[in-house]
């Protein structure tokens, strides 16, 4: 089923956004403005 893959993708994306909002300064050093 593609449901599992979709859930994993959403979880990974949510995790990345959480890191960006939680630790913006370190992300600015590595990824630029975001």
Task: Please tell me about this protein's structure.
- Helix content is 85%, strand content 0%.
- It has 34 residues and is mainly alpha-helical.
- It is rod-shaped and about 40 Å long.
- The N and C termini lie far apart (33 Å).
Distance between the termini: 33 Å
The helix content is over 70%
Strand fraction: under 5%
Overall mean pLDDT stands at 72
Number of helices: 2
Could you give the order of the helices and strands? Answer: HH
Give the structure's gist in a few sentences.
The chain is mostly helical and 34 residues long. Helices cover 85% and strands 0% of the residues.
Keywords:
mainly alpha; 2 helices; 34 residues; 85% helix
Q: What layout of secondary structure does this protein have?
A:
Elements lengths: L1 H21 L1 H8 L3
């Amino acid at each position: 089923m593609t449901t599992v893959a979709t859930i994993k993708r959403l979880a990974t994306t949510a995790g990345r956004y959480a890191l960006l909002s939680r630790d913006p300064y370190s992300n600015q050093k590595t990824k630029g403005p975001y």
